[in-house]
Amino acid sequence: xxxxxxxxxxxxxxxxxxxxxxxxxxxxxxxxxxxxxxxxxxxxxxxxxxxxxxxxxxxxxxxxxxxxxxxxxxxxxxxxxxxxxxxxxxxxxxxxxxxxxxxxxxxxxxxxxxxxxxxxxxxxxxxxxxxxxxxxxxxxxxxxxxxxxxxxxxxxxxxxxxxxxxxxxxxxxxxxxxxxxxxxxxxxxxxxxxxxxxxxxxxxxxxxxxxxxxxxxxxxxxxxxxxxxxxxxxxxxxxxxxxxxxxxxxxxxxxxxxxxxxxxxxxxxxxxxxxxxxxxxxxxxxxxxxxxxxxxxxxxxxxxxxxxxxxxxxxxxxxxxxxxxxxxxxxxxxxxxxxxxxxxxxxxxxxxxxxxxxxxxxxxxxxxxxxxxxxxxxxxxxxxxxxxxxxxxxxxxxxxxxxxxxxxxxxxxxxxxxxxxxxxxxxxxxxxxxxxxxxxxxxxxxxxxxxxxxxxxxxxxxxxxxxxxxxxxxxxxxxxxxxxxxxxxxxxxxxxxxxxxxxxxxxxxxxxxxxxxxxxxxxxxxxxxxxxxxxxxxxxxxx
Length: 543
Ligand SMILES: NC(=O)c1ccc[n+]([C@@H]2O[C@H](COP(=O)([O-])OP(=O)(O)OC[C@H]3O[C@@H](n4cnc5c(N)ncnc54)[C@H](O)[C@@H]3O)[C@@H](O)[C@H]2O)c1
Known about the structure:
Layout: E1 7-11, H1 15-26, E2 30-34, H2 38-57, H3 63-72, E3 73-76, E4 87-90, H4 96-109, E5 115-118, H5 125-129, E6 138-143, E7 152-157, H6 163-175, E8 179-184, H7 191-194, H8 196-207, H9 213-224, H10 230-237, H11 239-252, H12 263-270, H13 304-307, E9 311-315, H14 319-330, E10 334-336, E11 348-351, E12 366-369, H15 375-378, E13 385-388, E14 399-402, H16 412-424, E15 429-431, H17 438-456, H18 462-473, H19 479-486, H20 488-502, H21 511-518
Parallel strand pairs: 1-2, 1-4, 2-3, 4-5, 5-6, 7-8, 9-10, 9-11, 11-12, 12-13, 14-15
Antiparallel strand pairs: 6-7, 13-14
The structure holds nicotinamide-adenine-dinucleotide (NAD).
Residues 11-17, 35-37, 40, 91-94, 98, 102, 119-121, 143, 145 line the site of nicotinamide-adenine-dinucleotide.
């Protein structure tokens, strides 16, 4: 492994540059910070020193370490002052022409073996490197915001990046205490690419009025464990910034249908609704808190007591079916499979993928798991409600329910009993419009799909995807390990049903995902999926 650099230059003293310079001086390198705007340079230096002091107060490092780091930090008034650097990281504005020019100017002042790294998030590293005198010395070092706190750095290889330059970038990231993952050059590299459907799929759900923005956010938080919902996040990042990223993905891929920007966002940007910074985006921030706190999970559900001991039939051999059998039993329901309950009158039937081998499901109101179609497709003209949740299901996890296009109240009986059953499990519920996978299922299955495309294209391994989304985006769990937990047949079922309902290529399943299912690598149900090779100890997963 390469030794980390002794002298690091950072160009651009804004949000990212200041954070990167702070990391470099804390890691022990003499750090030279440059910005062509003297006021921006002064602000950047001030921010770093204040942050070093704050970190010492909070016990993140000692006062001595903060003082030593501040001592190692120096302003560089000109680019020429960066001559002694072994590594220069540029964090200048996101413009290809500007970054190419910068690479050319830097090539003229630093030593021939100095590595030049770009922190671009949406340009091709290969294109930025084209401005440098020797493009093999240029790599991507993609930090996440806020750089001092987020634990991930993507080390991105452009087509000409040399192994020595990549090794130095990895060593630097390690010295800064970051998880470094390798990612191929391309739209969004690995992590931002895998994350694309989080906002895009949420926007489609909003556009189709499956739920409103606040409900979609709540479902992602309470059903999926995400710290923030997609709309809160878009408002925080800037709706206009997100729109530029979406356009860049679409352009760089020559029109990939999965990455088509949302017309809803175009309209918001045109209307100046760009998020927190302007006081209004999807939410209104002008009067303080933009949303009420999430209510606590139901403790003593209304009327649950009178259901206690009631017979609930669960059909299907899916992960969720088994979890429901266990959870229902734990709170006192008489949970049985269709064969065990034949001839009896159940309180509720939960159809989680009944097969022709099961006895016919009849005699009670039904809720159908929408993992292989919408309610309209799975119960045409019927009286069932649809539901969806993603394993692992536990008390407190939100469950979504739908009555579809119920115009005559014909789903009332099933709706009332299903809502009370889930409340009795301690699960909050959300009523949404009809769709395969409902809200969370649709978003998460598209996230898995995007990750499967990226892995198959060699953008990163399954393990790198999972480390990337956890450390770079604060996901509650690795997205591919989650897919294994859910069951890959469940994920594929949702995608295929969406493809059938919507037509076109937007929901086409990644061939890798389909091949895993065809070869019975279903994840938890069969012990092998994206992870868990034949020896059951495959931590790196599919590469
Ligand atoms: N903000 C994020 O969330 C984030 C995350 C990852 C990567 N990035 C990338 O980091 C880079 C910087 O983004 P930021 O958010 O820190 O921007 P910023 O606007 O906060 O800072 C940019 C700085 O560059 C300076 N600058 C202007 N012209 C320059 C030039 N010719 N040479 C050098 N510096 C110049 C500006 O004075 C400013 O201080 C961009 O490429 C961006 O895509 C940003």
